[in-house]
Amino acid sequence: MSFRTRLALVAAAAVGIAVVVASVVVYVVVRNELLGEVDRALTHRYEEIATSAGIDIRDGYLHVEGPPPSQQSDYVQAVPVAGRVFVQPGAAFALPPNGHDRTTARGGHDVYFSDRNVNDTEYRVLTFPGNPGYAVQIFRPLSEVNRTLHRITLFLIFIAAGGMAVAAALGLVVARAALAPVRRLTATTEAVTETRDLSQRIETTGASNDELGRLATSFNT
């Protein structure tokens, strides 16, 4: 592998690392912002429920003030200390509770967020103590957020690959221009070796005090 090719590969690798690091930062920032929007929406719904105290469990269902589940993007359920979960009328499913949720129902925890996966669908969940003996959970699917992150990931991969390809091409061009004095030195050295003509000289155009200029001056001397 030629020195010029190695320089081009080093340039491509350096740009690739920079692009990958920048892509990871962009991904993390976008993901946090999207999840922040979901968290703010769940918090707003929590504040509505907490201030109105519009939660009632009767006839085996959880009744919450506001639109029914079919007309909203958030779902609400109540988790007792023991036993089955109470959902709103018309709800198609319930999130399985864990020990943390049951502890919250006993008053052991305050408000907290968590992620749950049910039937290959990820949900963002806000859990808080409700009526005595119950924890209330408000949750929203993250399908749209995950689709957006998937598209962004593909874009970032394409950008990283394109950046590395452009860096490799520019690296070849720059390496060719930067190594031109070295090629002249090599050609003159080979000519002197063949002809034994010590009168040949290397032109020291440009800066004569850099590494290549000093090398050419030393050779001429």
Main traits of this protein?
221 residues; alpha+beta; five-stranded antiparallel sheet; two-stranded antiparallel sheet; 54% helix; 18% strand
Short summary of the structure?
The protein is built from five helices and seven strands. By secondary structure, it is of the alpha+beta class.
Structure description:
Helix 1 packs antiparallel against helix 3. The mean pLDDT is 82. By secondary structure, the chain is α+β, with helices and mostly antiparallel strands. It contains five helices and seven strands, in the order H-E-E-E-E-H-E-E-E-H-H-H. The protein is rod-shaped. Strand 1 and strand 2 form a beta hairpin. The two termini are 31 Å apart. A five-stranded antiparallel beta sheet has the order 4-3-7-6-5. Strands 1-2 form a two-stranded antiparallel ribbon.
Give start-end ranges of low-pLDDT stretches.
none
| Count of strand segments | 7
The number of helical segments is: 5
Strand content: 15-25%
Secondary-structure element series? HEEEEHEEEHHH
Reading side by side through the largest sheet, how are the strands ordered?
4-3-7-6-5
Biggest β-sheet: count, sense, barrel? Answer: 5 strands, antiparallel
